[in-house]
Amino acid sequence: MMRKQLSFEQQKKWYGVLFLSPWMLGFLLLFAIPLIASFRFSLGKLEMLAAGGYKVMYGGFGNYKYALTEHAEFNRVLTESVVNMAVNVPLILFFSLFAATLLNQKFRGRAIARAVFFLPVILASGIIHDISTQSIMSTVMNGMTYGTNLDPEVTGLSGSGLSQSLELKGMLVDAGMSQALTDYLSNAVDRIYEIISSSGVQILIFLAGLQSISPSLYEASKIEGATGYEIFWKVTFPMVSPLILTNVIYTVIDSFADNSLTKLAYKTAFTDMNFGLSAAMSWMYFIVEGLMLLLIAYTVSKRVFYYD
Fold this sequence. Notes:
Blueprint: H1 8-42, E1 44-48, E2 54-58, H2 62-69, H3 74-103, H4 110-123, H5 126-134, H6 136-146, H7 152-155, H8 161-174, H9 179-190, H10 192-197, H11 200-211, H12 215-223, H13 228-257, H14 260-270, H15 275-301
Antiparallel strand pairs: 1-2
Helix pairs in contact: 1-15, 2-15, 3-11, 3-13, 4-11, 6-8, 8-9, 11-13, 13-15, 14-15
């Protein structure tokens, strides 16, 4: 029996399935059952049995209704998480693209500079992140940004971060910027440590994209007399735009992974021992996150340029 030869398009589809198969296997083996169990928990209350194990006392969508209408913190914390994400994502993307563009230039010590910019990924990971939040580094950065009572001789700073922020606000207002934009930029300065520590992976992705741009495009632009500003907006930015979509998705998910709402759900489950309410909070959080990802992906993908 002759085996039918697959077309090139069919081969690409099967390569895609092969590429996704580790994720699909991991999802089925590790996530599918806990996901179904958490939804069951969200529909009732868990009761521990004397003989061991547990029993779910189903109560419909009561946990969802309680979280939305009666819980003292859930709505506020959920709103704060969404607002923080909306504020942080543009700042992280802008800083990542700016840093990647600088690191893509040819200068002495470029490899060391790239390694230094990847340090935020290490510092933001696991135990080191927890240590850093208690360390002198965090204290110094807080001193820079919030003007604590830290001795300037210890920090090496001549003035408080608050006064610096106020000075920046004054400069921007004098330059004619609107109050909303001034508040946004000064807030970004106040949270510069958070932005840098969240930008390591995004910088690497943008750097890989910048290095994949054909030098012939830049040579042709220079021959045509384009300025550096025009080259960036007409060549560099369109060519890395698919990676902007990738980085937006990654940054949104990363911003939702560890915030005050996840801590609230954890506290509700393991301190208050209310697993049903915690599961309901987690599911509503998951739905909000999913809707925001769909909206952002749809909006950004409309403006992405793909070079064939």
